[in-house]
Amino acid sequence: MKKYYRHSAVIFSALFMSACTLLNAQEDEQEVLPLESKYKEPVTKTWFNTYGNIRISKRLFWVAQTHFRLEETEDTQYVGQIAQIYNRHAIGYIYSKKFNASLGGVLRLNFNTDEDSTDRNLVPEWRIWHQYQFAMPLSSVMVYHRLRIEHRWTQGFAENSDYIFRNRWRYMFRLKIPLNNHKLEPKTFYVSPEAELIMQSGKAVVASPMEDLRLTTTLGYIVTPRLTFAAGLMYSQGQSLDNGGVYKQNWTMRFHMYFSPDFRKVKNKLPEIHLND
Amino acid sequence: MQLIGQERQRFSGPLQVGIYGGNAVYDYKVIGKDTLLDGDFRMQQSDLKSLLESEDASFLFSGSFVDGFPTGPWNFQFGAFQSERRSQVIDYQYRVLVSGVQESGSGTVVKGKPNGSWTYAVNRIVDSEISEILFRSKFDFENGIPQRNFNIESEDRSLVGRFLRNGIAHDEWALYDDAALEATERWFFKEGVLQKILFSNNGQTKEFSINTGRNQLKTVNLDARYLKVVQLQATGDDAEAIAQSGVLHMLDKNAVYYQKIDSILSELGTSDFNPEFKVKLPYFPLDSLEKKQLSEIYLSYEKARTISAFFLNSSQLNILKLSDEESNYLFELVRAISSGFLDPIEEVLNYQKTSVLEYVPRSDLQNNLWPQGIPSKTIQAIITKDSIEQKRPFTLSNATDFDFEGPLFSSLMEIARYAAACLAEVEKQLNVKLVREKRQQALVALEEKLVLQEKGFGNLLDSLTSDTPADYRNTLQRLKQVADEKLGAYGVLKNPEQKLEQGQELTRCFENLLALGKAYSELPVRVEELRVHYEDGVWNPFMATVMKEAIKKRITNAYRKVLIPYFLEQVRDDFDCSQANMLLEEIQYTHERMFQLREEDTAKLERKLRREQDPKVVLELFHKPSKSKEN
Fold first, then answer.
1. Is the same domain home to B223 and B336?
2. Host domain of residue B508
3. For a Cys-Cys bond, which of A41, A161, B131, B461 suits A156, CB 3.0-4.6 Å?
């Protein structure tokens, strides 16, 4: 670990310096790709994510997600310090049972996790995101494909950093397999393996289009049709922005709460949702 | 002239007269709204095609009317012919030869009544020629009244006779048989009064004289009733011979043909073509005492017949008599009374109904009714045992109160009363037997039913599946115990009447208990039905599936956790049948109510049900309309 920190300190100072140089003199100080890809030591993290889907009409719902992401410190694995707080909102549209789409914005608060940094402690990151989710039943299993596109504006922790703009291209494949039931319904445990590939593009992205590849398995429990809890472990890896030859790695514990209240009046809810079928 | 010319019209076209349909041409006039036939009339039907193909029924009526009355010469022809499909050409005509039967009646009519000479003939026709006379009658009428001589011939017999000017039979009416040399039957009338009948057969002559006496005479028609009266004055062979009288047979045959003509003429206008041949009968009117006696006879007879018919047709007695000797005896006694007393009395009552009675001398009637003499008061029931007939006498204890001697109707009245009294006595004895038997059978049937019902409780327990909750099983078990105890209490009873009464009550009770038991055994299924009924589909956006969610949990909980345990607890040791029905109704009501509540606005009810644990309060709330009245 220590080795990693040293390493990352070097990278960070290099990044900082390059930013300074970009600002000041447009100096051509390029990172050099290593001869072989290098894998950084994995960072351990913990995510507490809440996912709210609040039904506002027969076809529309309000997506309200708040994620708390913690990261290790030198002393404490997984939950050492707060790293990011996500506020993700969108309006979703239920086209059919098998397809829905959402469009909204994200305000992510990034905390400076570099214990040695003297820069700003907190910077905002802005995103516009839209996603397209396909769901299909396969026997007792549900299969999901999610395409999510994010337009993000980020900035570094250094004072007066400029925003850089990137696009993220995300595809996620996910299964939900009921364990103690023949279908997903209340009082059911399920296991959900998922894989998500996050690609990125933008001027700042030169040699590192693969931002992240996430492999997760969660175990969930459906309490009611409106409340589900899940927990799992994710391994991810991806190219560093500044050097495509260097791969970051993460081990993340994830704790999720999914809630979907429906405050509409009873008479609007009945009969049960049939959508198109 | 001009007036008549204007009134009279002619019709030509198809016409239906009774069963006859054909083409008619006739004159008529209209007076007011009535159409009166007036003038010539001709109606006929013949079908050459059908004749050539198989057979043709043809007819021809011709004559004339005056003011709606058939008047003048009339001719009626009815033919049923077949053709041999042979034709001849004679001069300029095709002739088809026919075979069959031709009837024709002709004569003169005045004002709808036959007048003058009337002939009715039925001939067999072969190849268009008369081959045989089947029937021929010839009468002379004057204004509908037969006069002078008449004769009626059939294939093998002929009858000749004569009437006085007033249509009354007179002198000798003789029936000749073609095969015999002399008349086989000769009726001698003297101004309508029959004196004697001579039957001759192969040279043997038998005379039946009639005691005319000096009684009052009454003119009647010579018909079946007359024959019955004559017959009643004879006995044995004579009565038999009169019943088969050829004279009357010939007259009957003739009457049928005249009736045919009458039916046609009556259809077209006003006619009275039923010539009546009159005779005179001695008349023995019923005096007021006799009339009273007859009505008494009728009353006693009706009473007696009702009893005897009931027992003779009683399937219960018919079965019981096979095993019970005494019942058999009583049954046979009823039969004996029925045939020995009631049947002859019935005959007398029939004579009264058909007005025969007043023309028969009482003594003749008595002889006819009781050829063996007046029946004895000691009635013999004939019992067959091991194919040996045994007689067992029966006499009413107060038989001496009945006087069978005396004048005919007085005697008949006593006999009828005696028969009714005897039958009443038999009825008394039989009813005791039948009621006892009936009760016995009822009790057996009842107890079989009780046992079967009792088994029903066990069946209900057996029908429960292994996953039926224990409290259901316990309740049904308790219900069975309650039934068993009640059955045990019934079993101790000794008095059969009490048994019957209590047993019937118990079956009704068991019916209620069983119905309740059935409701209990069905409850788990019903609760599950309701659970499904109270589910609603909820869209889970994270799973993208519709999930079932229980709704209105306060109501379903009140039902499942408060009411059902309450229902199950109600069956205790002292459980009464009257409670069963109420409880059953409550269970059924609640279940139905639960189905309704799912769709109703139950916010107020749900609020009130919150933490309510008292089943009586919950039931009360369920009985109230769910919709709050506040709005």
1. no
2. 464-623
3. A161
pTM over the 0.80 mark: no
Tell me if residue B291 falls in helix, strand or coil: helix
Contacts of A186 in chain B (CB under 8 A): 547-549
**Domain assignment of residue B606, yes or no:** yes
Inspect the interface and report whether the beta carbons of B545 and A260 lie closer than 8 Å: no
Chain B's closest residue to A220, CA to CA, is: B543
The verdict on B544 touching A (C-beta cutoff 8 Å) is yes
Question: Per residue in B408-417, pLDDT tens?
Answer: 788 888 888 8
Range of the structural domain that residue A137 is part of: 2-269
Tokens at B613, concatenated: 């644990």
Q: How far is A157 from chain B (nearest CA, A)?
A: 35
Amino acid identity of residue B424, one-letter, is A
Q: Are residues B38 and B99 in the same domain?
A: yes
Alpha carbon dihedral B82, B84, B85, B89, in 10-degree steps, equals: -110
Distance CA B580, CA B620 (A): 19
If one counts every other C-beta atom within 10 angstroms of the C-beta of residue A26, the result is 8
CA distance B603 to chain A (A): 11
- Cβ burial of B265 (10 Å; 0-12, 13-18, 19+) is buried
Contact B546 A92 (CB under 8 A): no
Show which of B282, B310, B342 is a domain's final residue.
Answer: B282
Task: Compute, in degrees rounded to 10, the torsion defined by CA atoms B383, B385, B390, B396.
Answer: -40
What's the total number of domains in chain A? 1
Dihedral (CA of B596, B602, B605, B609) sign: positive
**In total, how many domains does chain B have?**
3
- List the structure tokens of B480: 């069975």
Length of chain B: 631
> Would the CB atoms of B542 and A53 count as touching at under 8 Å?
yes
Residue B451, in any domain of the structure: no
Mark out the alpha helices in B464-563 (DSSP H runs).
470-491, 496-533, 553-557
Cα Rg, chain B, nearest whole Å: 44
pLDDT digits (tens, 9 = 90+) for A76-100: 999 889 999 999 999 999 999 899 9
The SS3 of residue B267 is helix
CA pair distance B271, B263, nearest whole angstrom = 9
Shared domain check, B332 and B245? no
* Residues linked to residue B208 through DSSP beta bridges, in sequence order: B197
Instruction: Please determine, for the modelled complex, whether the ipTM score is greater than 0.90.
Output: no
Spell out which residues of chain A touch residue B541, defining contact as CB-CB under 8 Å: 53, 55, 61, 92, 94, 100, 260
Q: What is the enclosing helix (H) or strand (E) of B400?
A: none
Please tell me whether residues B136 and B278 are part of one structural domain: yes
Answer yes or no: do A100 and B544 touch at CB < 8 A.
Answer: yes
Tokens representing B122?
A: 């039925």
Task: Examine the domain organization and report whether B500 and B526 are in the same domain.
Answer: yes
Q: A275 in a domain, yes or no? A: no
* B543/chain A closest Cα distance in angstroms: 8
- Judge whether B406 lies within some domain: yes
Q: Do B584 and B471 share a domain, yes or no? A: yes
Which tens digit of pLDDT belongs to each residue from A172-215? Answer: 999 999 999 999 989 999 999 999 999 999 999 999 999 999 99
Q: Looking at the structure, do residues B176 and B160 belong to the same domain, yes or no?
A: yes
Which residue of B537, B541, B546 is in closest CB contact with A260?
B541
- Please report, for the domain that includes residue A105, its CATH number: 2.40.128
Residues B175 and B316 in one domain: no
Which single residue is written with the structure tokens 């009468």? B139
User: What SS3 state is found at B372?
Assistant: coil
- Picking from B539, B542, B546, the nearest residue to A228 by CB comes out as B542
- Which helix (DSSP H) or strand (DSSP E) does residue A65 occupy? strand A60-71
